[in-house]
TrEMBL record, chain B:
Membrane spanning residue stretches: 36-67, 79-97, 117-142, 178-201, 221-242
The species this protein was found in: Limosilactobacillus mucosae (Lactobacillus mucosae)
Protein name: YibE/F family protein
Higher taxonomy: Bacteria, Bacillati, Bacillota, Bacilli, Lactobacillales
Keywords: Membrane, Transmembrane, Transmembrane helix
Pfam families (UniProt xref): YibE_F
Length: 371, 257
């Protein structure tokens, strides 16, 4: 009976999730009236013949001009039809091919000689995001239930804090970037750990290890920066920079490494707490060694997680640099050096967290005895 | 000495101090992964089909991360098989999503950085986007697979005769324990890198509607969300593979004793 009850409420949950998800996805197909920007749907496409293009580096590409008949979906011209042109290339770095049924944003919609004219501003992509978010939530709640809910909650809360910190940074006109994002990092850590572990001794040990590990890693790195005079770091290669790049880079590094250091610390602390429960007579030395042995087996994979995240982002522009006749070394300096520095600093934080977390947890729990 | 070399040396020394031989292997795996990643870009630049490069580099990176991260073959073989399957499944999802979202290449926010560059390079950026997205998820998949696999190996060691349903249940329980911290690792790993982009958006007062249709933002979100999905899929698939390999794993305990 009990089991039946659980499964029927579970099925109800599942149904609600599926219905809400499908509803949200359907909504994005018909949300044109919620957009201020003019939106249109492609109704007919006529392609010209592809034209061969060769650039000064002997790259061969093909460009095609498209004539699109589109129908306005919102605004005062709703329902009106017009023609726009589009050019796409095989490589498609900044352009793309449009097909019948695609929805596109327009700019400069105006009437001239009784005809509507407009320029394509971009492709409508909101459905994809909604679909993927829904898929993540569905899988998470299906598989993990309570922990899944908490993980989700922590991501949502952290996103909100992140947005608030950025607003604050802009309000202060980038005066105290490191202070703002350093504080944010601390709040992030506390919130995430309370959500995952609750307000316990375990959480305090993890918090201490995360904060110390990250802080010492940053200090060591700054010292290395000083000693080597930041040779080979090209802040000008940072993307989307609207403020002074150096503090922003340090803030990015700090935030980027935070999750992994937290991950490492909480695994170590959890192991030591479990061991202590199994063997209440364990000495500080034994607990410390146990923590270290867990820590060193996860540090390699964790450093690689961050490394791949930081580096994959540089793939696109590195390829462009190589195909524009730049040397391998220059391509690395202009695209990958900042990602590499971030990976290395994060790695230092992850490694430092091992002795710190093991030590803290061992001191908190261990019996006095020979080390 | 350049800063990168100095930081690399510091990391190497620390890894060896803390982890001994295992620390050295971990550092080596980082170097190797860097080499393979760079080599992948060079191969694509030489017009090797991106899908082929993705599959081979992906397999190599998984192998390096898993087999050099841990010595216990009972754990690593299961984790490797499971992460290969997840990579395959994720590849199908990512190919579909990338063709749907069209977030390849660069956005209008990149224009300034691209000045003077020839964009017509004759290599499909859509295919490159698939490569980029899949490679960014591999580390997280390998890590989750190893965590679940190591936990299950311990359980099999203590209770060699549990059935597959129990293995799956234990696998999900281990998954539940790591999911919170793993999501945090990914969230911060990715969002740390978006800081400048988000300041750009906020500074120029992009509306929510503009942001969720923005090419760069959607591209980055696809990376984050597919990484989450990859980690989630890894948990049951690792437990399933461990169930299939139960006999050989339990047998190898016997040999060790």
């Amino acid at each position: 009976m009990q089991k039946l009850k659980v499964s029927s409420s579970f099925v109800r949950w599942l149904l609600i999730l599926v219905v809400v998800g499908l509803g949200a996805i359907l909504f994005t197909f018909h949300n044109e009236s919620f957009y201020q920007r003019p939106l249109a749907r492609v109704e007919q496409v006529r392609n010209e013949k592809a034209v061969k293009q060769t650039d000064e580096f002997k790259n061969v590409d093909w460009q095609t001009k498209q004539y699109l008949k589109i129908k306005m979906l919102n605004g005062k011209y709703r329902g009106k039809k017009l023609m726009v042109t589009n050019t796409y290339s095989y490589s498609g770095a900044m352009d793309q091919r449009y097909r019948v049924g695609n929805e596109i944003f327009l700019t400069r919609v105006h009437e001239k000689d009784g005809l509507l004219h407009a320029t394509i501003a971009g492709y409508k992509r909101d459905t994809v995001i909604v679909f993927l978010v829904w898929l993540v939530i569905l899988l998470l709640l299906l598989m993990m239930k309570k922990q899944g809910n908490l993980a989700l909650l922590s991501v949502v809360v952290n996103s909100i804090l992140f947005v608030l910190a950025i607003e604050l940074d802009l309000k202060m006109q980038a005066a105290h970037v490191l202070l703002i994002f350093g504080t944010l990092a601390l709040i992030f850590t506390i919130v995430s750990l309370i959500l995952i572990l609750g307000l316990t001794k375990r959480m305090l040990a993890t918090l201490g290890a995360t904060v110390c590990g990250t802080l010492i890693a940053m200090l060591i790195s700054l010292l290395v920066f000083q000693l080597t005079q930041e040779r080979g770091i090209y802040y000008e290669s940072m993307q989307y920079v609207t403020q002074v790049p150096r503090p922003l880079f340090l803030a990015e590094t700090l935030l980027g490494s935070l999750g992994a250091v937290m991950d490492e610390s909480s695994d170590i602390v959890a192991t030591i707490f479990e061991l202590r429960q199994l063997d209440p007579t364990a000495t500080k030395g034994q607990l410390f060694m146990a923590g270290r042995s867990v820590g060193k087996s996860i540090m390699g994979p964790l450093v690689n997680v961050l490394f791949l995240i930081f580096m994959a982002d540089t793939f696109t522009s590195s390829l462009l640099y190589l195909k524009n006749g730049n040397s391998w070394g220059y391509t690395f300096s202009m695209n990958m050096c900042l990602g590499t520095v971030q990976s290395l600093i994060s790695g230092i934080g992850i490694v430092l967290a091992i002795p710190i977390a093991s030590g803290l947890a061992a001191i908190l729990l261990g019996k006095k005895g020979k080390a | 000495m350049s800063t990168i070399t100095a930081l690399g040396l510091v990391l190497m020394v620390l890894m060896i101090l803390v982890g001994g031989k295992q620390g050295w292997t971990a550092f080596l795996s980082l170097l190797l992964n860097f080499g393979f990643l760079y080599f992948a870009i060079v191969l694509i630049a030489f017009h090797v089909p991106p899908m082929f490069v993705t599959l081979t580099t992906g397999t190599i990176i998984l192998a390096v991360t898993i087999f050099m991260g841990e010595d216990d073959l009972k754990t690593t073989v299961t984790a490797f098989y499971a992460s290969l399957i997840v990579m395959g499944l994720l590849l199908l999802l990512i190919v579909g999503v990338e063709h749907w979202a069209m977030v390849q290449g660069f956005g209008s926010e990149d224009s300034e950085d691209l000045e003077g560059m020839s964009l017509l390079i004759g290599i499909s950026y859509l295919k490159v986007a698939v490569t980029t997205t899949i490679l960014s998820t591999l580390g997280a998949i390998a890590e989750a697979a190893m965590a679940v696999s190591a936990g299950l190996t311990e359980i099999l060691d203590a209770h060699p005769d549990i059935d597959n349903a129990q293995i799956m249940k234990s696998g999900m329980a281990i998954g539940g324990q790591i999911i919170g911290t793993t999501f945090n690792t990914l969230f911060f790993g990715f969002f740390g890198g978006f800081l400048t982009l988000f300041i750009w958006f906020a500074g120029l007062h992009y509306s929510l509607g503009t942001i969720i249709n923005n090419k760069i933002f959607v591209g980055e979100m696809i990376m984050v969300l597919t990484s989450f999905i990859g980690v989630l899929l890894t948990v049951p698939i690792t437990a399933w593979i461990m169930g299939l390999r139960k006999k050989s794993v339990v047998d190898s305990f016997g040999e060790n004793k």
